[in-house]
Predict the 3D structure of the following.
Amino acid sequence: MRWLDQILEVPGGVFLFLTIAASLEVFGDAFFQSAVHRASSESRWLSVAAGALTLSCYGLVVNLPRWDFGKLLGLYVVFFFLVTQVVARVRFNQPLTLPVVVGGSMIVAGGAIIYFWKG
């Protein structure tokens, strides 16, 4: 996986990679959300299949690199939160609330500490 190591060494490569992983997970979850609450018969099964495929791709993508798993997931939570808020607003028309903004700020601050703190 030399090509993957090269991508992750480029400035912003880790962020791009985590954004892709978070997007796969969030969209996989959104497919299941649609299957359970919005879809009808045929489209329900298509949504379930799309969700399963997307979440399988997420599992592969997030586990491809050989990196510090604890640090990865600590930073990944930030990307998952941010992508989730975009999808919640755009796909499900859910507004951003003050508790989500305050709690999300703490999530982002925690991710910054995990990523940038050297020691």
About this structure: The chain has one domain: 2-116.
